[in-house]
Design a protein that fits this description.
Length: 259
């Protein structure tokens, strides 16, 4: 009988281990490549060994006087190549006509099943914002949703409206989901509360902007539904006057389970 109980206990532990995954998640606003080359940013990402990376301020084939080292580069292709990850881009606007673009991105170690770019509310008619959302297969088997976004910088009301739209999209589907990005909102703001009320915060409260002397937190990682996630560790990139962006990256190790 004792041997049977031990065998059943071992089986239960094995089943529990198979029902959850430990993931490294990263979100990083790149400041459109003004502060560092894509090679340097790639090395920073590789050093964290992430499963998923949400990227903001991503240029594709664009030219900027403040980012000459990265002019005419496809940031997603460059980062995917140097990190060995899959790369996906979500356009928010055309930039550097005729064939330049600007938007958000995702890097993933896991293959994608489907991905789409969803326009977010823009009542003031200013710079458009999007949600890049994909359904990925962890280790080619277990489906999970991962999304990257960059909310409006000008008005709190617009950010709250955009947050509500994202929540509607996330909660309308049955899979565990992770949403990351630059929310342009501090802890306690209405936009952040929208995410906290429906999901679990998977990062700390340490400031992430500006990178040389951080004073405010703008970058977040959230999991939905909250019961499917557990935060193990979280950190921010080191503050420095020579940081690779004006935002610090946020890196979290999480446990995700789906019954």
């Amino acid at each position: 009988m004792k041997h049977i109980i031990l065998a059943l206990t071992a089986l239960a532990i094995a089943i529990a281990a198979n029902a959850q995954d430990t993931l490294r998640i990263m979100t990083y606003n790149l400041r459109f490549g003004e502060c560092a080359s894509m090679r340097r940013i790639s090395e920073e990402i590789k050093a964290q060994n992430p499963d998923f990376v949400a990227l903001q301020e991503v240029d594709v084939n664009s030219a900027r006087t403040m980012a000459k080292a990265n002019n005419y580069l496809n940031f997603i292709n460059e980062l995917a190549y140097h990190t060995g990850m899959f790369g996906h881009f979500g356009r928010t606007l055309n930039f550097s006509i005729p064939d330049g673009y600007y938007g958000v991105g995702i890097l993933s170690r896991h293959p994608v099943e489907a991905i789409e770019t969803i326009e977010l509310p823009n009542p003031e008619g200013v710079e458009p914002r999007v949600l890049l959302i994909g359904r990925f297969l962890l280790n080619g088997k277990k489906p999970i949703v991962f999304a990257s976004t960059h909310l409006d910088v000008k008005k709190a009301e617009t950010r709250t409206l955009q947050a509500q739209t994202i929540i509607e999209k996330i909660t309308a589907q049955p899979l565990a989901a992770i949403v990351c990005g630059d929310f342009n909102a501090e802890p306690g703001s209405e936009a952040v509360k929208v995410f906290e009320q429906k999901g679990r915060t998977l990062c700390g409260l340490a400031p992430t902007y500006p990178s040389d002397s951080p004073r405010v937190k703008l970058d977040y990682i959230f999991g939905f539904p909250s019961a499917d996630f557990r935060l193990l560790t979280t950190s921010e990139g080191p503050a420095s006057p020579t940081a690779a962006s004006d935002h610090l990256p946020v890196i979290s190790t999480i446990v995700v389970s789906e019954e």
